[in-house]
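Input set for joint prediction.
Command: fold jointly, output tokens.
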Amino acid sequence: MLRPAVLLSLLLIAVPADLARAQSSDDETIKAINTTATTLAAAFEVKDTETIKSLTTADHVAVTPFYDGPKSLNEEITTIADLDYRETAVGDVAVVLLAPDVAMRTVVADLEGSFKGKPLPPRVFATEILVKRNGKWIERFYQATAPQP
Amino acid sequence: MRSLAVVISLISPVLLAAPADLALAQSGDAGTIAAINTASDALHDAFAADDAEAIRSHMTDDHIAVTPYYDGPQAVDGIIAQLSDIDYTETIEGEPSVALLAPDVALRTFFADWKGSFKERPLPGRVYVSEILVNRNGKWLERYYQVTTVEP
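tokens >
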């Protein structure tokens, strides 16, 4: 039987190690989430519909000030020729895990380009909800809000 | 942002049939969805009553709100501090859609028409609202709120 002092020592060693593993795991998760999000944004810039489909859920919805209401994935794809889109993140990107397989990523972004010939709002606050499916983080929901002029 | 007078739900078959709305169709069991809607309605009522403590009780401590009229994302304290600057009514179009993203995470969305002002500036008329709710200790709380102006 282990004496209390030995048990305490083992616990003190074990807890920091667990915390370190958790932190490392979180770092890897956040990195994976950011990689998906930045790859997806780049795919929209170059109109790469196959990559867009591979990084979004089938029931994906996007809400932006320039779309006429929320768009399904199919609607986003069919209108991508109308979209001239360049995005530059401004400041820090925040990633919060809402559940082990659900993350919320927020970013302030400067936009350049147009949709159906109308200029995009120059700055938006964007929220992305990503979910982990079969080990891969993909986007489920996107919403951008432009401040009132 | 919130109904400060009366929230009127208008069933709109056209909106309910929209493809994007179908994508956010109800998922999860009816009891859970009812609890989520009850929590959200209670928060709206708290805003309608300017009840700061009730508002806090229905939000997480790290709640963030993003709207076209705020000067950037607002934490709970910022929302409470600006309650007296908001004067408006909200009419929800149709039934809000609720999607469970995880057992304890839900996405609730709806269209709404707004009338009123924030710091005496007119609010956008038609908006799309999303709310992220999380279940903490058996209670659904709002974690995130975002509004986007859409074309009328």
